[in-house]
């Protein structure tokens, strides 16, 4: 672990909140996206309010069929079931968000690796990183299809933030243009290992240590019954007050990341969250999640409507964030 102070304020904040803290109940706003075009202004107001107050919300009637989400989880699992030496042919190159990693993500908040393996899909950067058709028939096509469904939902939600920030409604769709080689939004498949035969000491670590996301917006697919996500809104970070967000079919959990926080001149909150270990009385089996990170294209310039920060490209911004999160190897 590096001993240097982190370059960005977000990381210094993250480095102080690795403790267990306490659990409090709070309401996570639910926002209904039905009849989107007609209700857009009302939906935008609700999204803005939720993102200012807590930075986390759940959407329903979001347009991605549950059957497609279930199928994406099944396809993701076929990847994790591959033999280790097959997965190891597709390693995540250092400093990128593409390919497979095993217990490599060290959070500044904990200094220990998350107890998980993951496979990241950033479409322009996947050369040599897709499992072959013999190893996993149809995997690439299915995952790219799911990636596109998430992109569409992501830019729909982001169009509401554009409206509230005084930008053109397609501003963030352009900033996340998937046809550009500068595209860097990422679909991540995560497998948190089963704790069924784990030793007591293993329960002292985290499935995912406390962190905020780097991106503009995260669309986090989770499976009902596979809980553990906790959030800690900004004003409660010092006291370490965490709230469980149980997954529910039909609802997708979303959160604001650091990129949109900065882009909105800190009007919106990127909120700390983590995935805790199950308690002895809870489901101890493996846990899967499928976050999609809407990260603006590398060449998109982040310039907030209030001009609070100097402009920076999303590429430069992200490079700083990623380099602080992975073991130096
Ligand atoms: O697995 C989860 O529920 C959360 C994952 C997460 O926060 C992340 O990968 O950034
Ligand atoms: Fe996260």
Automatic annotation (TrEMBL):
It holds the Pfam family 2OG-FeII_Oxy. It catalyses: 2-oxoglutarate + O2 + 2 H(+) = ethene + 3 CO2 + H2O; L-arginine + 2-oxoglutarate + O2 = guanidine + L-glutamate 5-semialdehyde + succinate + CO2. The keyword Oxidoreductase applies. Its EC number is 1.13.12.19, 1.14.20.7. SUPFAM superfamilies: Clavaminate synthase-like. The keyword Nucleus does not apply. Pathway: Alkene biosynthesis; ethylene biosynthesis via 2-oxoglutarate. GO terms for molecular function: 2-oxoglutarate oxygenase/decarboxylase (ethylene-forming) activity; metal ion binding. Its cofactor is Fe(2+). Residues 182-296 form the Fe2OG dioxygenase domain. GO terms for biological process: ethylene biosynthetic process. Keywords: Ethylene biosynthesis, Iron, Metal-binding, Oxidoreductase. InterPro entries: DIOX_N, IPNS-like_FE2OG_OXY, IPNS-like_sf, Iron_ascorbate_oxido_reductase, Oxoglu/Fe-dep_dioxygenase_dom. Residues 106-127 are annotated as: Disordered. Residues 107-125 have a biased composition (Polar residues). Signal peptide: none annotated. It comes from the Bacteria. Belongs to the iron/ascorbate-dependent oxidoreductase family. This is 2-oxoglutarate-dependent ethylene/succinate-forming enzyme. It comes from Bradyrhizobium uaiense.
